[in-house]
Amino acid sequence: MPADRQPSPWIKRSSFIGKLYLLDNAERIPVSVTTSGLFDVAADDWLQSSAGSSPAAMLFHYHSQTPERLNYTISLLDKRSATLDVSRNQYLGFYAKQTRINFFKLQPLKWNRDSLRCLIRDHQGHKVKRIAGAPADVTQAAYLTVGDGVEHEFMVVRID
Predict the structure, then answer these.
(1) How does DSSP classify residue 32?
(2) Residue 86 and residue 66: Cα distance in Å, rounded?
(3) pLDDT tens digit string along 47-63?
(4) CB of 87 within 8 A of CB of 102?
């Protein structure tokens, strides 16, 4: 990784607790977990960005790294049996009892003392985005996807 994208010391631990935010210009929009669907479908434990929510506490488990990316499996702090994955419809959510656990790639853009500005990709390299057709006002609730959508940077903030 380039010198200005080198990991801060806290990232070198095998795991850390953090909260995730979608970035829109200078605004941090919390990424939370749904408890009911935004559409006419049940969507418990799907990831959404929404200014009206509290960010979910997540456990980032170190998996591996490449020269440009840090790879983690991610679970909810209060529901560790479910790990972050991509649904067959390309939504991000936490799923229990998976036959294989996929990792997500954090592509560092800028480090601070307790935060990381980054792009996020699934294990196949698809960027995490705000779903296509979501309200233009990014503070309104919208699911996260690796399918069609609007690209954003994210901020991981360490809380432990």
Answers:
(1) E
(2) 22
(3) 999 998 999 999 999 99
(4) no
| Rounded Cα gap, residues 24 and 117, in angstroms | 12
Return the CATH fold of 3-158. Trefoil (Acidic Fibroblast Growth Factor, subunit A) (2.80.10)
Per domain, the residue ranges of the chain are 3-158
Distance of CA 61 to the CA centre of its chain: 13
Q: What is the pTM of this model?
A: 0.88
Q: Which amino acid is at 33?
A: V
Residues with Cβ within 8 Å of 2's Cβ and at least 6 positions away in sequence, in order, are none
What's the pLDDT tens digit per position in 72-113? Answer: 999 998 877 788 999 888 999 988 866 777 899 999 999 888
Query: Are 65 and 118 a contacting pair, CB within 8 Å?
Result: no
